[in-house]
Design a protein that fits this description.
Radius of gyration: 17 Å
CATH class of the largest domain: Mainly Alpha
Strand content: 5-15%
CATH topology of the largest domain: Glutathione S-transferase Yfyf (Class Pi), Chain A, domain 2
Low-confidence stretches: none
Number of domains: 2
Strand order of the largest sheet: 2-1-3-4
Helix content: 40-55%
Mean pLDDT: 95
Distance between the termini: 52 Å
Structural class: alpha+beta
Length: about 220
């Protein structure tokens, strides 16, 4: 059997960590079947992932061969390397690869990881008052991490690593829509704000955004975020 003709299977609800993976696959042109599961909605949802990943977290990508991949950054980097013709990442030997690897690790380690806590603060908090403190401090930590990243990414290019869209741009574009929201992100990260707006408007992703992470009224978040 020619496994290359079979679709990938991607587990994760619209707007989740599966979204940047799905967007990259759309850019590459890979066939994918989606299974919408939202682990942050509770134990019943998480249990739906147990048969493919004991971590019971999204995203989970099942390759046509049956091999399972988890971790959004790892999946994105793997996809970019498997399909160099798409030009979605600097390859080995490219002088931009150092910073690419740096920021592809930074986003999940410093920012994405905060949402495991935010989704269910009771995991770490002793009571409701402690939960409120956790939610406030993680929101501010996320904003700070975006600010720190923005101060260090290059200026004068259309995207974060040059003048061509890549998986890092897609990753930041999706994660920046999560708490505390785009309005706050724009204030904290004005350089990256230009980039994510450009990715939002990319015509190659227009149908994808409309179907999987639409720009509904008020999507950017409150002005006071």
């Amino acid at each position: 059997m020619n496994t290359a003709a079979k679709p990938y299977t991607l587990y994760g609800a619209p707007g989740s960590g599966a979204t940047p993976v799905h967007a990259a696959m759309t850019m590459i042109g890979l066939p994918v079947q989606t299974i919408d599961i939202a682990p942050w909605k509770g134990e019943d949802e998480r249990q739906k992932l147990a048969h493919v990943s004991p971590m019971r977290q999204a995203p989970v990508l099942v390759r046509p061969s049956g091999e399972v991949m988890t971790e959004s950054a790892a999946i994105l980097m793997w996809l970019a390397e498997q399909h160099p013709e798409a030009g979605l990442a600097p390859l080995v030997g490219d002088p931009l690869r150092t910073q690419y690897l740096r920021w592809m690790a930074y986003v999940p380690a410093s920012i994405y990881s905060m949402y495991w806590v935010r989704d269910e603060p009771s995991r770490l908090a002793a009571d409701k008052e402690a939960e409120k403190v956790i939610l406030e401090r993680t929101r501010e930590r996320i904003a700070e991490c975006w600010r720190l990243m923005d101060a260090q990414v290059p200026r004068g290019t259309s995207y974060l690593l040059g003048d061509r869209i890549g998986v890092l741009d897609i990753y930041v574009t999706v994660v920046s829509r999560w708490t505390p929201g785009r309005t706050r992100f724009y204030r904290e990260a004005p350089r990256m704000a230009e980039v994510v707006r450009r990715v939002d408007a990319d015509p190659r992703l227009a149908d994808f955004w409309a179907a999987r992470f639409p720009f509904k009224q008020g999507w950017e978040g409150p002005e006071t975020a």
